[in-house]
């Protein structure tokens, strides 16, 4: 069993994240948060030790893995302290608020052989993994065009929206296409909580793309769609919950030909909920499984700060293109 600690156990962690650990060999050894949040968590979950100082928790419990969901501005410092205490970290995104902070963590990862995984969970959702496998297959051909939209309800601030929300969408493009270069961004501003961007980019493989992301929509209806075009084919992920792979249809002229053809026709995947199961759209269980397996086998996870820094550099570039570049931390 790996010893698990939690820093910041309210909201998302309380409602969902900790439940996702139940299938894996993790033993909760301590939680850290303000007294009201900690007591609410303890009332729901069995927890041996409660702390208000996370450094004290690290010192006394010596966890192997920390789920870290601290205040937005504190994520880098907390992740840094966890690495130096000998713990791997699953951190709320973006972990760092600059590529300079990310480089600091990359160096500490190298020294400690402990790793930080940002909560960029779309890389582990079944729909995007299936789309990735399609795009990488020889039948699909070289990706040529990419079209994506992601919308959200009103956000706390524009900075948090870019670093906490848009970072997801830039990372998905990298996941599906490889490294990309941002070329242009247009910004629409309604008020301090509502804004949006059209972002154009080119991948190193020559694919051109557009990402539309905003906080102008109601979060109660479908907000997300990604389409990648290849050679005579495209693959579409619709609102995370379905995948459609469009391929050239065979010519049909007689009744004998009215059947599904291997290698042709459109393939559609939607989860079957006819029976009870614990299936998740959002990939959290898959993310935990990957991280726990890597820790147990001494391997580097695929999503570590050396990879995530490339996404954070894209966020900085977006801020620059949108005229919002912040001071380098």
UniProtKB/TrEMBL annotation:
Belongs to the Gfo/Idh/MocA family. This is Gfo/Idh/MocA family oxidoreductase. Residues 3-117 form the Gfo/Idh/MocA-like oxidoreductase N-terminal domain. PANTHER family: CONSERVED EXPRESSED OXIDOREDUCTASE (EUROFUNG), CONSERVED EXPRESSED OXIDOREDUCTASE (EUROFUNG)-RELATED. It holds the Pfam family GFO_IDH_MocA. Signal peptide: none annotated. It comes from the Bacteria. Keywords: Oxidoreductase. It comes from Paenibacillus gyeongsangnamensis.
